[in-house]
Amino acid sequence: MDGDLLETGRPRRARPGRREASAAPHLKVPFIRRNIPTYDILSEENLQRIEKTADRILAEIGIEFRDDPATLDLWRGAGAEMDGVRVRFPPGMLREIVASAPQRFVQHARNPANNVEIGGSAVVFSPAYGSPFVMDLDKGRRYGTIEDFRNLVMLAQSSPWLHHSGGTICEPVDLPVNKRHLEMVYSHIKYSDRAFMGSVTAEERAEESIEMARILFGADFVNENCVILGNVNVNSPLVWDGTMTKALRAYARANQAAVIVPFILGGAMGPVTNAGAIAQSYAETLAGCALTQLERKGAPVIFGNFLSSMSLRSGSPTFGTPEPAIGSMVIGQLARRLKLPLRCAGNFSNSKLPDAQAMQEGVMSMLSAVHCGANFILHSAGFVDGLLAMSYEKFMMDSDFCGALHSYLAGVVVDDNTLAMDAFLEVGPGSHFLGSAHTMRNYQTAFWDSAVSDNEPFEKWSDAGSTDMASRANLRWKKALADYSAPPLDIAIDDALRDYIDRTNRARPDAWY
Asked: Which pTM was predicted?
């Protein structure tokens, strides 16, 4: 459906000592082609045990599909066992249905150079999603606004290490609930030329997001190609509500990709034990993926997962903890057995500041996303306070870490140049390599260079103000916004989008809930 899948080269890396080079436009790649293997931790026997447990959940307990009669009709027509809104599935039924979904697909951006491949060996980094609050070191924590939303889209567009514009990058609470999605989608289109996500909070909002994509790309192109994603969540445990299934079906009906994601807090919406939570999430996600294929066979879909834990002393959610991180490895194995693209884990933290806790938790969960084989990594930048807040500083710190992961995922290249035999012959024993021909030939691409770390001697760091990473990130996001230049957008398309938004808004009164 998308023609030839995309090729992308190995990312170039910044010149040592040239901090500004980390943000140079020529360093951008549209997505990463991973060159390291996934980390598969479970045996075939144990994977089958999890799948059989999920089959029992689906067949003996079932899943409720509430407030969406059309979804019940689809299941009835497919041969599921119906008991009111409770639907039970014979073992293997859902796996047969999802076999029609593509293993890989291209999501097109308005700038074709930024098209992303989702699936296979491709890895796509996308900003955090869904926070009602934003925060920075100057103004503290506050409700997000459409100005914040636009700022964060601009920061994502400016980063060479992110590949996707994301979706609800923060919630603009200064706009009516029933109209804000129009301005959010428009902001992605206007201030970025990368791929983006649409609304899922009501069926009509999903459809209006897709209609704006049709204005941008053309209706015929959208019918044949993926240009927008919709991220839908299961109401765990074992409930799909009508808001989500209607949005899911709207995206599938339009041949656009739904990202199917249960959010399971172990001990609250699922068992405290990893294997049980994984079996539950597998069952819930599989049902959502299959529903997309009943709505439109062959529609792209992403197998998603969000395992998390909680403090059993207080009941508070916890993020960036080891149990969900290692559980993500198993989710990756299960998704590959289904031959579906994977969204899993991300840069999660429950810290209230862009501090050591934030980065410790974020690295734990982000590396789990990388090693489990996730193709679309939502929440790659900005996530703090258990996703209640989007931090400007952590956005810059996380984006920088995404840059390091470009090099990490490139693996170790072994060829005549990297084996460096000519350098050994030139330098010999007891000398140094700094001025060798091999170093001169490779110094621009040898090492990734952080834009926010400080590697200077203590005295120089102290004389420069003894700044920490968050303070340096504060200066970086301000500079990025000051330097930002919007990618050109065709005036006729811009006018058509504004006209559509104005007409749609005039047709209904504001709603604030």
From this structure: 0.95
